[in-house]
């Protein structure tokens, strides 16, 4: 079977790498891919948002399974287009992808499903939103752009002035473009965040191993939010009992309510949760593998990923045996470009990748890279996801940072405390 992975980030490299290990897979294509997928798969020069050309390519190459990595093509309806062409594709429909594409849709659905989440209000008018903020008591708030903003459209605010400043940036200064035409304002939840990924086929839900992302740019969770500066799996925050609670109170009612709403969910359901004193509450839903959570989770997966995703795409998850996992934890450290999550330069030559690849139980997943002749150069803000397995979380962290030390380019940086929350 030939497989097509759509996207060009670290998540897509992890998917292509894992899918290529399947005995049932003869060839993996990645569109458009990056310098890392060029080594583990075959890159195709088609943008992830060029849906007609992707459909044509899949038909011409008789692709047996297409796996869509990023959220933008999913919310644009790539799955609907592939299904209409008679192609097998793993991911949610355009209607179901609203769960990530519109935070107001997601929050309203949680409300209908009685899924625990923060109290919220939705506004189409900046003036009305500002009045709402001013009329409230001085409590911490979170201001969110309604649409897709590459993980950066969420501003956590301690004071009213900060919330109004965030509102101005999102709605009046249109920092995030059309994504900020509507905002969701909600109470800030206190606790520790965890990422729950589950494979869903409309009816059956198979949770994957737990992980924890690190969104703020700098050590000790300081600085602006990013797309994610690292992750580890599993997280000790989620006990088996808590996982049962998450499944019954969050995942099951969400999937059931989606089905009752006429947009049955198939694909990856990603629940970003805050573990509060009142129990787990949903911060947001995504409709694809997390990035960088996919990297440590897929490093630990022993079951054939192609079989899992094909069963998910065909509505056959109930026939799968239990998934098998490597008991060892995995840690992923994101190496970023100077200036990220703000402006940064591209085209800086990356050295030391071969030296890092020599380390056992370590894989360097490429995110923002490209090939310039024979050289690998930076092509994004988050450049690499250096991932390692270890006998303990501390051991995995040590191995990951040993690999990080072997890699260099002008302006490279990373957080130094990824996975410390596991202690």
TrEMBL record:
Tell me the pathway. Answer: Purine metabolism; IMP biosynthesis via de novo pathway; N(1)-(5-phospho-D-ribosyl)glycinamide from 5-phospho-alpha-D-ribose 1-diphosphate: step 2/2
The record's annotation in PROSITE patterns points to: ATP_GRASP (PS50975), GARS (PS00184)
Q: What class of enzyme is it?
A: ligase
The terms under GO molecular function for this entry are: ATP binding; metal ion binding; phosphoribosylamine-glycine ligase activity
Sorted UniProt keywords = ATP-binding, Ligase, Manganese, Metal-binding, Nucleotide-binding, Purine biosynthesis
Which cofactor is essential here?
A: Mg(2+); Mn(2+)
Composition-biased stretches, type Basic and acidic residues, lie in 211-223
HAMAP family in alphabetical order: GARS
In its UniProt entry, what is this protein called?
A: Phosphoribosylamine--glycine ligase
